[in-house]
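Researcher: Good morning. I'm working through a list of sequences from a screen, and I'd like to move beyond sequence-only analysis. For each chain I'm collecting a predicted structure so we can compare shapes side by side. This is the next one on the list. No need for commentary yet; just the structure.
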Amino acid sequence: MLAYTYREPGKFVLEEKKKPELQNLQDAIVKVTLASICSSDIHIKHGAVPRAVPGITIGHEMVGIVEKVGSEVTSVKPGDRVTVNVETFCGECFFCENGYVNNCTDENGGWALGCRIDGGQAEYVRVPYADQGLNRIADSVTNEEALFVGDVLATGFWAAKISEIGHQDTVVILGGGPTGICTLLCVMLKNPKSIILCEVDPDRIAFVKEHYPDVLVVNPKEVDVENFVREHSEHGGADRVLEVAGSPQTFELAWKLARPNAIVTVVALYEEAQSLPLPRMYGKNLIFKTGGVDGCDCDEILRLIEEKKIDTTPLITHEFPLQEIEKAYEILENRKEKVIKVAIRCI
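Model: Good morning. Structure tokens for this chain:
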């Protein structure tokens, strides 16, 4: 089968690999119909994910059709159309039982697919712990509608969930890329008083303004965003700040924009260490929530999609066959052609 493979930092190659087989009784083999490229894949390419294993197939954002299941798999069967969760989790350890599936203690727990074991930018993928890692797609939901459920949309849903957003809150989202927009969609479900999105890319700004006109959009390169947020909030700053961009500037901006006693949720993946200037922050009494997504709400997300309460299809601005995945990466990595997200047809 064709598979896009991580060879070494800076080098991905499209090559022929052996089709995956069941290795455990809880595995499933999924024929990948549609995949996508995540910014995390680009971080791997840049060598910014030390745990990524050279030789693995890249990709953790996909939908497909179950082809084969192990004897202990009960939630899906061959022929089911499914989303694939970015995380592998056993469902039985302390962290899984408490909903912290990103911290599953299994040897392949957490982000494994496309990082430590073969992922899904390929024709087939093996999914461990299939009962937890696969979610069936309703007949009324298209592959395109479900494509981002297992990763970028689950991240946005989790970020909104842990931010404890109330109806009277002013919420700031830093970053208008794919994860930022998915976070925006999930924040909108909470019906806060106002939402401010900060972005510097003119194409992304135009996209948000076109599709979500009720959202206030501000460019920190053109406007004093600290004053802007103060003017559009009631208590000297945002009640909730969600940092989704992942730069040193946005990391600092996150705590600066927050009012005293606010919640700052950091879900961005950084390529370098960040620091908290605690003497300058003293007295703000901020609550920080950080880390990777706990992707255990995929059934609820799929239900919201089925009910037409979430629609991420506008994010798919480009589509390529697997044979042209290198072109897809080149466009996405360099933000060409007003790209937001790329879909990869694998069959």
